[in-house]
UniProtKB/TrEMBL annotation:
Signal sequence interval, chain numbering: none
InterPro entries: GDSL_Rv0518-like, SGNH_hydro, SGNH_hydro_sf
Taxon lineage: Bacteria, Bacillati, Actinomycetota, Actinomycetes, Kitasatosporales
PANTHER family cross-referenced by the UniProt entry: GDSL-LIKE LIPASE/ACYLHYDROLASE, PUTATIVE (AFU_ORTHOLOGUE AFUA_2G00820)-RELATED, GDSL-LIKE LIPASE_ACYLHYDROLASE, PUTATIVE (AFU_ORTHOLOGUE AFUA_2G00820)-RELATED
Protein name listed in UniProt: SGNH/GDSL hydrolase family protein
Keyword Repeat in annotation: no
Organism of this sequence: Streptomyces sp. Y1
């Protein structure tokens, strides 16, 4: 399965509203939006922080707050990030989430759909312009064995289908992030092969900037194509994986590894019974029911 086959439907309408200046920008999501893969000092920068200064059409800076947190699920946005975001009264809100949901043993597309709809609905109801994106399949990015790659791809298709439907429902601006050349241009991925590199984060920021400009929002010049800092060398990548990367993976493994092993066992049994297509159909039906439940 290619990285492009993840339920990314280009028919999603950006539902343009009357464009205006975007003075307050809040980003919600997980490690992708937190900035993992784009280190600055002891922290992360990421695409949203790269985009924020480019939103200012004049000398007045944009107020930017990044609420995204590594490992966040869709329900974490409703429970933790959304209240903080609403308090900031954003004019622009980015909501990129769902990848971690696919990696959990208790994945439930109905629950994820309800949570994401609630987040987008609340932000939109408070007149925030929304940014969404469909996400690449993590199994393909990581080159996982087929027994893991297939169920993850199935789940990612479901999440992306929901994201596209909710993009239309809440009139968001959508980036087909899955279509960016992550595998063809390896430099766009960080050492962990799961998150964008600094250059990858800049690419995402530039694409969102273009979409906002196309929607008529007054903006500043687009972000640079590449970061000012030189890319880390091979030794720096290995050092990161051995230190900070190892800690990140260990923190995630406590909740990811059991679920991934269970997925692999279930997929192996599915293949032996020849019921893979049945599981694909069942996931598609569950996704359709989840969206229908929204009314």
């Amino acid at each position: 399965m290619s990285v492009l086959d993840t339920g990314c439907d280009r028919t999603a309408d950006d539902g343009r509203r009357a464009a205006g200046e975007l003075r307050r920008f809040v980003a919600l999501g997980d490690s992708l939006t937190e900035g993992v893969g784009d280190p600055v000092g002891e922290g992360w920068r990421g695409w949203a922080a790269v985009l924020a200064p480019a939103l200012a059409a004049d000398e007045h800076p944009v107020e930017f707050t990044n609420l995204a947190a590594s490992g966040a699920l869709t329900k974490d946005l409703t429970d933790r990030q959304l209240p903080a975001a609403l308090a900031l009264r954003p004019q622009l809100a980015a909501v990129l989430v769902g990848g971690n949901d696919t990696l959990r043993a208790g994945f439930d597309i109905h629950r994820s759909t309800q949570a994401l709809d609630a987040v987008l609905g609340e932000l939109s109801g408070h007149r925030a312009r929304l940014l969404t994106a469909c996400l690449p399949d993590p199994g393909t990015l990581l080159g996982l064995p087929a027994a893991l790659a297939r169920p993850l791809a199935r789940r990612m298709r479901a999440v992306n289908t929901v994201v596209h439907a909710l993009t239309d429902r809440h009139r968001a601006i959508h980036l087909h992030l899955v279509d960016l050349p992550w595998l063809a241009e390896r430099r766009l991925l960080s050492a962990d092969r799961l998150h964008p590199s600094a250059e990858g984060h800049h690419l995402i920021a530039r694409h969102f900037h273009q979409l906002l400009a196309d929607a008529g929002h007054p903006l500043g010049p687009p972000p640079a194509a590449t970061p000012a800092e030189p890319p880390p060398g091979r030794a720096a990548d290995l050092w990161w994986m051995a230190t900070r990367g190892t800690r990140w993976l260990a923190a995630r493994s406590t909740d990811l590894l059991p679920g991934l092993l269970a997925l692999a066992a279930l997929e192996a049994a599915t293949r032996l019974r020849g019921t893979t297509a049945h599981h694909d159909d069942r996931m598609a039906r569950a996704t359709a029911r989840a969206l229908a439940s929204l009314g």
